[in-house]
Hints:
transmembrane, Ion transport domain-containing protein, transmembrane helix, coiled coil
Amino acid sequence: GGRYDPVDDYFGAQDYSFHLMMIIYFFFTVILMLNVLIALINKAFEKGDDGWRLKWVENRLRYIESAENLSYNIPGFRKKYDIFPKEIYFSIPSRPIKDYQSKVEENNKKEEEVEVKNNTEALVQTLRDQIEEMKKKQNEQLSELKQLILESRRAPEP
């Protein structure tokens, strides 16, 4: 069956410290390897568990679709029996709806901020243009007033 004697005489039966260290080493190695194995199995199980709900919804849709399509082949069946509704409603928990609404509101707020910013910039530019026009008119009026004052001082009255 093989030889079971120690590799060296130093590792004989009287050396308890070596055997104790080997027992501790193997014990922790086995625990570590079992933990790694459990982690791998858990990861594989989670990966396989992710798609079951989507697959269930797809199968349910296929079943409803096939049931509706069966009634199309019978002449006059859908006119006589109004079994299926015009719309099929899908129920969803409230949390994803709230998340979606918050995203939509956030996007709308961002769009409004951009629009307000653009409108503000346009308004500021319009006001600047109006101020420039008013300055030009004031300068023209001021130059006309200066001209009138100069003319009134030059011309003596008889």
